[in-house]
Give the backbone structure.
Amino acid sequence: MPGTRPPKKHKGLVIINTGDGKGKSTAAFGMLMRAWGRDMKVVAVQFIKGETSKFGEHMALAKMGVEVIPAGRGFTWTSHDLDVDAGKARHGWKIASDMILSGKYDVMMLDEITYPIRYGWLEASDVIETLSRRPEMMHVVMTGRNAPEELIEYADLVTEMRLVKHPYAEQGVTAQKGVEL
Amino acid sequence: MPGTRPPKKHKGLVIINTGDGKGKSTAAFGMLMRAWGRDMKVVAVQFIKGETSKFGEHMALAKMGVEVIPAGRGFTWTSHDLDVDAGKARHGWKIASDMILSGKYDVMMLDEITYPIRYGWLEASDVIETLSRRPEMMHVVMTGRNAPEELIEYADLVTEMRLVKHPYAEQGVTAQKGVEL
């Protein structure tokens, strides 16, 4: 019937935070924090990892007892061998994929997973295929710029973080510990 | 000189997460989590508070030992008296303002502060006046839709969260515990 609300239902959501602005990973970490507050089982898988970036959230997740799995390039950007990087990304996805299907997690973050897909190291269709077989109530939040259309099509909730104003270019302010790192 | 990068400097940032999309408060909570991970002193002040919403982050902040200060309407929406609401908002801002100037906090979240400003209960100029006197290294992150232009003008970093796709309208899915509540 027109105008009738569909019945409310509960299900695990596939969430994407994309766009060029700040806050994509930060909001996903906030989501993990919220679920952790409810004693849900949460885990973060990171596909790109600089050596110093995101150190604040690693310290926080360690304090919270939340697992962080390095996938893809792992903990450094030292490799300049694309075949090695592609291999690491595929290996990282295999680990993440097994974890998704294990039934052990309520909420999983796939941080910066859009990059290995954009680089051609992972297929969006493989990611979707695994997500479609995940436990019914499991939430998965993916982050990164330029989320592939296929993934957006599949997701339940997609937010674009758009930069309105940024201090670095204008004021020469460097990234600040605690709020961005 | 054109093309010369300004010297890097450190300073406390005024950050705004605005827009109609999800993730404004969630990203601010992620920021608090990151700073908490670095053992910085963080606090959340909430200007609008439904009775059941955001319960997940309250549980998380309690587990983390982070203070949450109810301001404005406080913990319920039960009041329908606008004068009472306005008074609460002003009282809430007085508390927040004293905390900002106390020098005790490294990072403060002013959650949904845009609403009492939009309702005319707080003046953006008063908020800016207090922020301008805060400790130099203190970060303040403000959230809410329709951030006033004056506040955006004053802020260092502004992100708009834009809704690309949302499950409720399309699929009749209700808000999910752990990821949104």
About this structure: The radius of gyration of chain A is 17 Å. DSSP finds seven helices and six strands in chain A.
